[in-house]
Amino acid sequence: MAIKIDSKIVGYEVAKPDDGEAKPTNAPAATTEAANAPDIEHMHESVQRPNELEGSTYKIKTPLSEHALYVTINDIVLNPGTDHELRRPFEIFINSKNMDHFQWIVALTRIVSSVFRKGGDCTFLVEELRSVFDPRGGYFKKGGRFMPSLVAELGDVIETHLKKIGMIESEELDDHQKAFLEKKKAEAAGHNPAMDAAAAEAPGEGDFPENAQLCKKCNVKAAIQMDGCMTCLNCGDSKCG
Fold first, then answer.
1. Is the pLDDT of residue 74 over 90?
2. Could you count the other beta carbons within 10 Å of the beta carbon of residue 144?
3. What is the Cα–Cα distance from 208 to 233, expressed in whole angstroms?
4. 149 contacts: CB under 8 Å, gap ≥ 6
5. In whole angstroms, what is the distance from residue 239 CA to residue 218 CA?
6. Cβ–Cβ under 8 Å, residues 72 and 57
7. How far apart are CA 91 and CA 76, in angstroms?
8. Who wins on pLDDT, 161 or 217?
9. Over the stretch 120-155, which tens digit does the pLDDT of each residue have?
10. Residue 139 in 3-state DSSP?
11. 106: pLDDT confidence band, cut at 50, 70 and 90?
12. Cβ–Cβ < 8 Å for 122, 89
């Protein structure tokens, strides 16, 4: 706002930026509170590895190899004992008696471990690894789930671990969806009486009809034609909604 000066100017002074501004009465308290605020540590490349880390080991047994693979993922705990405590993956190791592809396994573990230690969102690794297809063809796991490659199954293991430590939320079916799937399974068993016998002989092997097709959403051979629409008996995905 302009101010008109009617009298003679006899002196002047340069105003400072904070002149004329009311200082908050709680400034000392706010300064003390900021000084006492906890220093929250986030995952970054400079985080030093502790002498001891906790982790989990997962076994992968595929028809592509005579020997199983053992995948170990170790975690680091940031801000332990505080409200900001976080558990984050720090490193990954893959071990097997089969040494045919040892150099590629070492390279993969080092790259994935580097992504873990980089910090930020590392969940993208799951889809990146799952999108790798073996030119010789994939295989079906126990339960009827299709794996396009061994690398894709490594992505599956990483997803399992990230869900375990809370970085990825588990997409569990609610009671309504579970009841719907049980109803559809019962209807499918009614259309195919041999399904119950097969399930009794091999429980847990994917209690789905033999003529079921591969579901594009969950990669389980559990999609059947019901009510004029392809419906997955494992995840409930349906083209009819």
1. yes
2. 19
3. 7
4. 132, 133, 134, 138
5. 14
6. yes
7. 9
8. 161
9. 899 999 999 999 998 888 888 877 788 999 999 999
10. strand
11. very high
12. yes
Cα separation, 131 vs 154, whole angstroms: 11
Closest C-alpha to 58, from 145, 132, 163, 135: 163
Dist. CA 134–CA 126, nearest whole Å: 16
State the Cα–Cα distance between residues 75 and 124, nearest whole angstrom.
18
pLDDT for the residue numbered 202? 38
Q: Is 180 exposed, middle or buried (0-12, 13-18, 19+ CB in 10 A)?
A: middle
Tokens of 51: 């002498």
**DSSP conformation class of 159:** H
- Taking alpha carbons only, the member of 129, 124, 118 closest to residue 60 is 129
Orientation of helix 102-118 relative to helix 150-164, angle to 10°: 30
Burial class (CB in 10 A: 0-12, 13-18, 19+), 222: buried
Structure confidence at residue 90 as a pLDDT band (50, 70, 90): very high
Give the Cα separation of 214 and 210 in Å (integer): 11
